[in-house]
Write a structure and sequence with these properties.
eight-stranded antiparallel sheet; three-stranded antiparallel sheet; binds zinc ion; 23% helix; Glucose Permease (Domain IIA); 19 strands; Membrane-bound Lytic Murein Transglycosylase D, Chain A; single chain; 285 residues; alpha+beta; globular
């Protein structure tokens, strides 16, 4: 998409410059200066256009669409096998360093926590983590409270939740460090904190992979994201199968291996009524 738009701009620029030269001078005689002019358009105009495109359509080649209709959508999107994410030019979203809660599964609440919780005071300035464009702003009474989602040219989207108020609007271009909201306690929150998410094509990634809040720094100039490999059944790899032992049942195997009874049945062509033999090999993948 980006290339079509660039091409269109470039063509318009070229036609305009060609017309100007041709109307003033003989076209053949002016061939050399015209080439020079074209070269100048190539470098100056093109670099300016690319810069404008980067902010107007951040990570355009990665995302299938620009939408103000949802916070994040993971389903149906293909995540590249690997992506080098540029972390230079960052700004920490808050000066606060205390991490109240980390990313991951919370057994006590039986749900995933898709971000990092950073302690803030009500009214603290929350800043854009990178240059980018605000894609989504909303209020969720039982969830995020006031929140903002920004898409960045490096491919990440960042989400800032539980804000007292939002200071930006959808489709607004922001620079790293621009104030985007005030810290708070709105939505499902038990005390003022910033719930901060980093997502790639909708998939939540641990913000600690990129941001080190205690040290107010990024983890490096770049972060190489690699898609976790899906495990496949391999008879030579004991991690991919289970050998039935004395006293085993499907539910016991499920709790031992973390593979559900339903999945075990499906993978091995058995039912919950099937009799298991000692030594029988069950595929886990
Ligand atoms: Zn949180």
């Amino acid at each position: 998409m980006m290339h079509f738009r660039l091409l269109r701009y470039l063509l318009v620029a070229l036609v305009m410059s060609t017309t100007a030269v041709a109307s003033a001078q003989d076209l053949l005689a002016e061939q050399a200066p015209m080439d020079k002019q074209m070269a100048r358009i190539d470098s100056v105009v093109l670099s300016r256009l690319i810069k404008a495109e980067v902010y107007e359509y951040p990570a355009d080649d990665l995302y299938p669409e620009w939408s103000n209709d949802y916070a994040h959508k993971y389903v149906g999107v293909t995540i590249p096998d690997s992506l080098l994410i540029d972390l230079t030019g960052f700004c920490m979203p808050t000066e606060n360093t205390k991490v109240n809660d980390i990313f991951g599964y919370r057994p006590r609440r039986r749900r995933m926590h898709y971000g990092l919780d950073i302690k803030v005071e009500r009214g603290d300035t929350i800043r854009a983590a990178f240059d980018g464009k605000v894609r989504y702003c909303s209020y969720q009474r039982r969830g995020y409270g006031h929140y903002v989602v920004i898409r960045h040219p490096n491919g990440l989207e960042t989400l800032y939740a539980h804000l007292t108020s939002r200071l930006v609007e959808e489709n607004e271009v922001v620079k790293a460090g621009d104030p985007i909201g005030l810290g708070g306690n709105t939505g499902r929150s038990t005390g003022p904190h910033l719930h901060f998410e980093t997502r790639l094509l909708g998939k939540a990634l641990n913000p600690a992979l990129f941001f080190d809040f205690p040290n107010q720094d990024v983890t490096g100039d770049t972060y190489l994201y690699t898609k976790p490999k899906k495990k496949v059944y391999d008879p030579s790899d004991p991690d991919t199968y289970y050998k039935v032992r004395n006293g085993d049942s499907l539910s016991r195997i499920a709790s031992r291996t973390g593979v559900s009874v339903k999945q075990l049945c499906k993978l091995n062509g058995i039912t919950t009524q099937s009799t298991l033999r000692i030594g029988q090999v069950l595929r886990l993948y």
